[in-house]
Amino acid sequence: MKLDYKNDIKKEIEESLNVKKLLLSKSIDDINKATNILVDAIKNGNKIYLCGNGGSASDSQHIACELVGRMRKNSISVPAFSLATNISTLTALANDFGYENIFSRQLAVYAKKGDVLIVISTSGKSLNIINAVAEARKLSMKIIVMTGKRENELSKMVDLTIKTPSDDTPRIQEAHILIGHIIASILEKELGS
């Protein structure tokens, strides 16, 4: 006998749609500001760094991939790097300097004034993310955080916070990928060949 999960499926899809409708009404100005920050940085020869933990680490890698490659048709060729992808570097830094410094140490080596750091954190509480933001501040980087709806420590430390109007981690992460795709699509339009 096959079970019927249609109500569960419908509920998940409706929750996702509701969060995206709220995102449209509450976050469009912040997404626009973030896109302008990124366009200006790239036009000035700067780079974009992204980081996050767990699913947000995957999101940082996914968004960097879209920026370096292409979204729909054009080659973007934006210099974007996920700080969560080099397992040898991550494990060495965690072993030698502590997990809380895996992103900040990379920024100290690679980043410079005028570069942009995009941090992705559903909670805004991760110490390695907070330390990355502190390092980015020292380097006079622009900093954008994508997070959930709750006020958190990160929001007070950055140039721009894009809040997803939800407390539910899966819904927040779905919105973060949507935001990343929107930004990549606009950058492709503005900067693509």
Characterization of the model:
This protein is an alpha/beta fold and 193 residues long. It has one domain (16-191): Rossmann fold (3-Layer(aba) Sandwich), CATH 3.40.50.10490. 54% of the residues lie in helices and 12% in strands. It contains seven helices and five strands, in the order ααβαβααβαββα. Strands 2-1-3-4-5 form a five-stranded parallel beta sheet, sandwiched between helices.
Overall average pLDDT: 94
Molecular shape: globular
Largest sheet strand order? 2-1-3-4-5
- Low-confidence parts: none
Percent strand: 5-15%
CA distance, first residue to last residue: 54 Å
Draw up the topology in text.
Blueprint: H1 6-26, H2 28-43, E1 48-52, H3 55-68, E2 80-82, H4 87-97, H5 104-110, E3 116-120, H6 127-138, E4 142-147, E5 160-163, H7 169-191
Parallel strand pairs: 1-2, 1-3, 3-4, 4-5
Summarize the structure in short.
The protein is 54% helix and 12% strand.
Which key terms come to mind for this protein?
7 helices, 193 residues, alpha/beta, five-stranded parallel sheet, 12% strand, Rossmann fold, single chain
